[in-house]
Amino acid sequence: MGASIDVRDLARAAAAGDQHGWDGLVERFGGLVWSTVRAHGLGPGDGADAAQTTWLLLAEQLERLEDQHERLGVWLAATARRESLRLLGAARVAAAAAPPPSPEPPAGAAGAPGREALLWRVIRELPEHCRRLLRVLLTAPPPSHEEVSAALDLPVTGIAAARDACLQDFRHRMVNIGIRTELEDS
Amino acid sequence: MQREVRKTVSVVFSDVAGSTALAEQLDPESLRRAMTRYFEVARRVHQRHGGVVEKFIGDAVMAVFGIPHVHEDDALRAVRAAHELREEVAALNRELERELGVALHVRTGVNTGLVLAGDEQEGQAFVGGDTVNVAARLERAAGPGEVLVGEATQRLVADAVRVEPVAPFVPRGKTAPVTAFRLLEVAWGTAGLARRLDTPLVGRTGELDALDRLLDRAAGGPACELVTVLGDAGVGKSRLLRAFAERARERALVLTGHCPPYGESVAAEVVGQLVAQACRSGGGAGPLDPAVDVTDPRSMFRGVRMLLETLARTRPVVVLLDDVHRAEQLLLDLVEYLHAFAGARLLLVVAARRELPAGWPGWNGRPAGTLLDLKPLTEAEAAELAAGLLGPDRLPAGTPRQVAAWAEGNPLFVEQLLRRLADRQDPGVPGPAGSWPVPPAVEALVAVELDRLTAEERTVLELASVVGRVFHWKSVAALAPAPLGPRVGGVLLALARRNLVKVADRKHGDDAFSFRHRLLRDAAYQAIPKRERAILHVRAADQLQDEAVDHHLGQAYRYLAQLAGDESPPPAPVVRPLRPAPAEVTA
Lengths: 186, 587
Hints:
The complex is a heterodimer of chains A (about 190) and B (about 575).
Chain A: H1 7-15, H2 19-39, H3 44-61, H4 72-94, H5 114-125, H6 128-137, H7 145-152, H8 159-176, H9 182-185
Helix pairs in contact in A: 1-2, 2-3, 2-4, 2-6, 2-7, 3-4, 4-7, 6-7, 6-8
Chain B: E1 5-17, H1 19-25, H2 28-48, E2 52-57, E3 60-65, H3 74-100, E4 105-117, H4 130-141, E5 147-150, H5 151-157, E6 161-169, E7 178-186, H6 205-219, E8 224-231, H7 237-248, E9 253-258, H8 266-281, H9 297-314, E10 317-322, H10 329-341, E11 346-353, H11 355-359, E12 370-373, H12 379-390, H13 399-407, H14 411-423, H15 440-451, H16 455-467, E13 470-472, H17 473-479, H18 488-497, E14 501-503, E15 512-515, H19 518-527, H20 530-544, H21 549-563
Parallel strand pairs in B: 4-5, 8-11, 8-12, 9-10, 10-11
Antiparallel strand pairs in B: 1-3, 1-4, 2-3, 5-7, 6-7, 13-15, 14-15
Helix pairs in contact in B: 2-3, 6-7, 8-10, 9-10, 12-13, 12-14, 13-14, 15-19, 16-18, 16-19, 20-21
């Protein structure tokens, strides 16, 4: 399905000015670019800037990138990462380093029972590197390990092990808050 | 047990324009009486179409179509109710003008979308959200006496309404513009999205032959033959009836009755359709004997029988009754009565969805009647249908086959998907099949099937959907809350009888089931609130110990992160390459 569409064909069509080719690339890699900038701690506003710059660079350089068309996802992930770091650097100069934003429970959950709060805490307290990794890995359509490696500057060979460790960590935290009995109680 | 579900509903939001000025004009007592009458009108109109008046907020009325039960035509019901409310308020105004010298000007917004519906038994039928907000925003943007319809609603009712677009606007407090349409007219008796019954029939030669043989038998009578055509929504029952009618007309008088989606007396309406056609046929039959009292079953049954017997003296008669799953008991009684007593060369063909026997046990167990089980088309047939609907050269060569695979042999799904793909700005490239949107009409059909289940069946189906398209009895039992565990097998068999799941191929091992259609699995899954989905995936990872553990943990994390606001959808790039080589970009 998704994977059966050849990225090279899409890139070639897009470079020739074909809207459908470009749309196909956006459909294929939009999630990857976005999860990469968000994984670097950029908020929705700065994140959108970094993502738009990434796509702008691709639009400008698509023709010249012909030898990389096959690995366009890797190029996009690396570019999104570079743009994110550039924006982060600029932001740090502007304001003394702010901690990366933590997800807050959605509005309305404030008065919710303790069980609910525990669920948000599992997400919030998962180590930062796990949240970054899972955010990129769980993007739809799923990126390749090479793409994840480029997005997060991690060695390709360590990604599977890191993912397993993070998922197990998540699982233990969920089990610890008594998730096993959750549905039977409610 | 949790019974919150995510579901698509249609919301009608109405308010009285200029009510402050009205309050100045009238004595509080008169104002209150006028408003009470308006509320009564609104409640009656919404109820007539199956809507529930969820609340009155000041002078505003909010009605919801889709709770507690969804209907496949909820959007059309909502639009009809909004339209009719406008007409009935006009009638009310004539009285109010005469009595008090005032008139009410009602603005209405209609919107369709996802809500989280609670357990109605606990008095928490419904939680608001963006779907309701947008309906209210549309109401605000409407002029006095106007109905504005949101884009999602419009897409579901396109063939039954006349609308004109209004300029997209950004409501206060929102960021994205809202697309809306001004409702001008609603056609009665027309489906929201018309079926394509005019295309060449694909497959079904065996079914047509069987019907031909039954007609032979009836014609050689005098005997009344009864055949029930059972099949899933969209599988092609109406198309088959139409094809058979064309063939049968050469040697028989064909009368067709169609059960309306809702209304007060389906039997009387269907009998009316048959009698009107009989009169036009010139087969020597006049209208029903004036002595017939249609409100008295015995009188009506006899009247219809004698009419058909008179017609059948000249030539055999075929009576086709479509959508009989919507019928009330009286119509089914009439069919049984005719089958038992009509001494005429008569063939009765009853087409209905599979829920018919569930509502009327024994319907398909009757020894004298014949059952025709209409199966999905084969993939090759579905591809042929898709190619026929597409016409030449519209889409890349592989598209019909991909569409057929997606639809899994259901002609309605083929039709609706092609329509949805064509709705996209330029249908030149349909995009990868995996990214095709589920057409809203198909989504609504599937939702209706799920909505009909008992709480227990629904829970089991949802648990199964977490496991996947193919699932084992033991996996679902492992996920089930303790009291349900031992009953899972029985519930799964009940779901198989309802044809929502089927026994899976032996290659999947012992006691494996699969969802009848991928879309059923997706709909069951997506109806589970994300929080429960996450919890179920963690439990699945914990209990199932198979290779899918990573998948389950990943899904669980994904949904919790989404709920925690940690994942927003990517913004669309505002750039694209230009040709020739770009020196500038559009922004």
